[in-house]
């Protein structure tokens, strides 16, 4: 079987889902028998160098760069998977949704208890910086997503089973214990 | 003010489990509960400031900011909107000179939205400083606001019309109406009050009482339908120094208002049911959790309890039964639908945020104060009294095989005779519609937002636990209603507003689904969106409690039964349309930080 190409990225996430990918432990050796990693923090390849079969997205979109990366994943990957709570629903970062953006920025840079060193009351506005979106978006509200793997983070076993199912074309079993919230 | 607060704390003996009452009292004298007050409380109570703030911030009717002298909470339920809420709100805004969510600059009037207040058969309704004003019209609004501005009291303004039945008693003095339109086995006035306590309990063992309840096959009337006899049995067998009976009068499911009517007209029977449960289970304390919206009934209900104490229907050795001691306290809620969920209710009773507990253990084992606790709905407890009086066989003859007995329905919406109807289980939906005078019907919501929205092809189905269960809420919609914008969207807003926020699924998924719904409503929906909504909704099953587990039902059941309404709005030309616009979505943040948006279109 030809090796499938995988790419991964972490957008507005905490890298916890990527940690969970690594939690498949020694099965990662089996995995690299089945797949080749392209753009991904796992191998530190920064740009797409060939067409990718499966793109795995951690995190939702909170700024313009997230949107650009996500769109480039959609363009370069045949299948996109939203991995984990933040990618699927916005997760913890989405707690800011509903609070006016001005209030968020004021709290972060002007009024919060830890902004003492920002004596000049600077708001980050360099053109090099990504621009904040009006709210944090789950990935599917930006591009088409093909599959969703729930969890915070999704368990390593779930990731493993899902990848194997996808790579071998078999059915994925999602028992209640795997997705139960608490 | 400090002294007043200390007085309030000592009134409740510094008992941190009575935090709800302490906060109610402080809010009543100070108008709000700020950080300084919280610090003071933390100092005096065995609680941290964070714990107290958790409770204060959780409930709709506590405020950390000064409110107005008169706070108008205008109901935002589906039926309120169907009956002209928009015009009434506009009239309030014009008369007060403020927008919804604001307080006038002189601090006299505040105007806020609130979730269903249990007045669906007399909407639009508002609560102004604990007084309920029903059937509002723009004309009436002008009168009320003018009256308040000119120093009239709320009582002056209410007395213009009084409700029916006991609503007109001086202790209640409310314009709320019972609208009882059909009486049955429960509501018939064929029962001599307290005859169960007087004549039956002294001659019957507690196990025999539980047997009668079990044999009657009655199931809980609060929604979940658990067999009451079995619940009592579990409660009586569980180990604990004390046991508790809780009467759930939170009645928050939009569209139900039958518990309000039971508490207005039949409070003695409800309390007698609690005493009976206490006797059967071996409890020594009963607690009735009354939703804040029904505070206008509080002193009346306390009066009923007082006279029961005088007659030894409460207290020590009740009805001469040695060692049968039982008393009842009423706990006022503070505005949170989730507190109807029994374990959230118990948390709230203990003075905490109303967050459901993980189960098991269930309340029958570890409930209030971690001791065995039986929680029953108002109607269940009242019905049990008649069962004990008339026997299990009598009850088994009512209703149908799967669901015995009667159910008190709260019917509202597009019908000529909204109100309370007691019917036997097994009644067909079509007959329900005929009964309440509904014509030109497009749909009926059975069991409130967490139930099902059904159309004509299902009108032959029956009310029963196995077919169409209902805690009582029935809302009718005629063919002129836009089900998606007027009904489904309103229900989704309700769940989003009322989620306690513990589970990420329930905190986020209803929001995500609402975005999808809005996308469809706004003409940007594609076929995939419908499939997504149905399949994603299943994820909510993993939530901790019934709120999250049913929060997608408005969407799921309207897709199931009214799919053409969705399809008519879809864009069938494209396969995917996110509806997202990067250019506009960064405008606000760029403005705040002071930069020009730049886009790399080659990305
Ligand atoms: C979100 C939610 C809200 C609820 N609200 C109520 C309510 O207002 N009144 C009620 O009696 N039961 C309500 N329940 C059901 C209670 O948890 C509990 O099952 C019921 O009070 C038990 O009494 P019963 O067996 O007599 O029906 C609610 C459940 C959930 C999940
Ligand atoms: S399902 Fe919703 S309301 Fe229930 S515990 Fe979870 S977050 Fe709270």
Task: Count up the helices of chain B.
Answer: 25
Give the total of domains of chain B. Answer: 5
Biggest beta-sheet profile of chain A: 5 strands, parallel
Low-confidence stretches of chain B: none
Largest interface: A-B, 39 and 38 residues
Counting helices, strands and paired strands, the structural category of chain A is alpha/beta
Q: Which ligands appear in the coordinates?
A: flavin mononucleotide, iron/sulfur cluster
Separation of the first and last Cα atoms of chain B: 61 Å
Give the overall silhouette of chain A.
elongated
Based on CA inertia axes, which overall geometry of chain B fits?
globular
| Strands side by side in the biggest sheet of chain A | 2-1-3-5-7
At the fourth level of CATH, the homologous superfamily of the largest domain in chain B is: NADH-ubiquinone oxidoreductase 51kDa subunit
Strand fraction band of chain A? 15-25%
Provide mean pLDDT of chain A, rounded.
Answer: 92
């Amino acid at each position: 079987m030809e090796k499938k190409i995988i790419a991964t990225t972490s957008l507005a996430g905490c890298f916890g889902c990527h940690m969970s990918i690594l939690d498949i432990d020694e099965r990662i050796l089996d995995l690299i028998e089945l797949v080749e990693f392209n753009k991904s923090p796992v191998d530190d390849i920064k740009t797409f160098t060939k067409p990718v079969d499966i793109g795995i997205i951690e995190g939702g979109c909170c700024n313009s760069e997230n949107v650009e990366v996500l769109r480039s994943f959609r363009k370069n990957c045949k299948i996109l998977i939203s991995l984990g709570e933040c990618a699927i629903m916005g997760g913890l970062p989405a707690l800011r949704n509903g609070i006016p953006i001005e209030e968020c920025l004021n709290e972060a840079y002007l009024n919060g208890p830890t902004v003492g060193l920002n004596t000049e009351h600077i708001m980050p506005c360099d053109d090099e910086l990504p621009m904040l979106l009006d709210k944090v978006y789950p990935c599917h509200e930006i591009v088409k997503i093909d599959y969703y793997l729930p969890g915070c983070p999704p368990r390593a076993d779930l990731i493993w089973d899902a990848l194997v199912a996808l790579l071998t074309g078999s059915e994925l079993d999602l028992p209640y214990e795997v997705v139960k919230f608490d | 003010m400090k002294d007043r607060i200390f007085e309030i704390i000592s009134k409740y003996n510094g008992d941190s489990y009575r935090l709800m009452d302490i906060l109610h009292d402080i809010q009543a004298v100070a108008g709000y509960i700020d950080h300084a007050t919280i610090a003071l409380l933390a100092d005096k109570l065995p609680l941290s400031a964070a714990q107290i703030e958790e409770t204060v911030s959780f409930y709709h009717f506590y405020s950390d900011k000064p409110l107005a002298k008169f706070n108008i909470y205008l109901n935002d339920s589906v039926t309120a909107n169907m009956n002209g809420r928009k015009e009434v709100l506009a009239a309030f805004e014009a008369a007060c000179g403020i927008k919804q969510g604001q307080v006038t600059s002189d601090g006299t009037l505040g105007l806020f939205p609130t979730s269903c207040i249990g007045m669906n058969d007399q909407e639009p309704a508002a609560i102004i400083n604990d007084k309920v004003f029903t059937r509002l019209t723009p004309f009436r609004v002008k009168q009320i606001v003018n009256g308040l501005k000119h120093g009239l009291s709320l009582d002056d303004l209410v007395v213009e019309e009084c409700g029916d039945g006991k609503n007109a008693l001086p202790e209640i003095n409310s314009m709320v109406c019972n609208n009882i339109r059909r009486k049955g086995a429960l509501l018939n006035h064929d029962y001599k009050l307290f005859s169960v306590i007087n004549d039956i309990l002294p001659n019957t063992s507690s196990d025999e009482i539980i047997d009668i309840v079990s044999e009657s096959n009655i199931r809980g009337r609060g929604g979940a339908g658990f067999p009451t006899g079995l619940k009592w049995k579990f409660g009586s067998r569980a180990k604990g120094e004390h046991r508790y009976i809780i009467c759930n009068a939170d009645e928050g499911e939009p569209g139900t208002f039958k518990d309000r009517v039971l508490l207005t007209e039949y409070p003695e029977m409800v309390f007698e049911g609690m005493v009976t449960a206490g006797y059967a289970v071996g409890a020594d304390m009963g607690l009735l959790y009354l939703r804040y919206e029904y505070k206008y009934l509080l002193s009346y209900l306390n009066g009923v309890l007082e006279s029961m104490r005088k007659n030894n229907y409460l207290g020590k050795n009740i009805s001469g039964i040695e060692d049968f001691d039982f008393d009842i306290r009423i706990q006022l809620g503070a505005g949170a639908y989730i507190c109807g969920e029994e374990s959230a209710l118990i948390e709230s009773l203990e003075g905490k945020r109303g967050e459901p507990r993980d189960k098991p253990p269930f309340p029958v084992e570890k409930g209030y104060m971690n001791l065995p606790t039986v929680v029953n709905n108002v109607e269940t407890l009242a019905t049990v009294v008649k069962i004990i009086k008339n026997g299990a066989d009598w009850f088994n003859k009512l209703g149908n095989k799967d669901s015995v007995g009667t159910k008190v329905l709260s019917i509202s919406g597009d019908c000529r005779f909204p109100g309370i109807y007691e019917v036997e289980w097994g009644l067909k939906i079509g007959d329900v519609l005929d009964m309440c005078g509904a014509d030109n019907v497009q749909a009926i919501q059975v069991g409130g937002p967490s139930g099902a929205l059904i159309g004509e092809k299902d009108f032959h189905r029956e009310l029963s636990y196995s077919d169409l269960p209902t805690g009582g809420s029935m809302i009718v919609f005629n063919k002129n209603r836009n089900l998606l914008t007027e009904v489904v969207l309103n229900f989704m807003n309700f769940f989003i507003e009322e989620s306690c926020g513990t589970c990420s699924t329930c905190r986020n998924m209803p929001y995500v689904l609402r975005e999808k719904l809005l996308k469809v409503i706004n003409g940007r929906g594609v076929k995939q969106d419908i499939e997504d909504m149905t399949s994603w909704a299943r994820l909510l099953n993993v939530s901790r409690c019934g709120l999250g587990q049913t929060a997608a039902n408005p969407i799921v059941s309207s897709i199931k039964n009214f799919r053409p309404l969705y399809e008519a709005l879809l864009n069938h030309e494209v396969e995917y349309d996110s509806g997202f616009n990067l250019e506009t979505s960064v405008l606000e943040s760029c403005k705040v930080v002071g930069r020009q948006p730049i886009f790399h279109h080659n990305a």
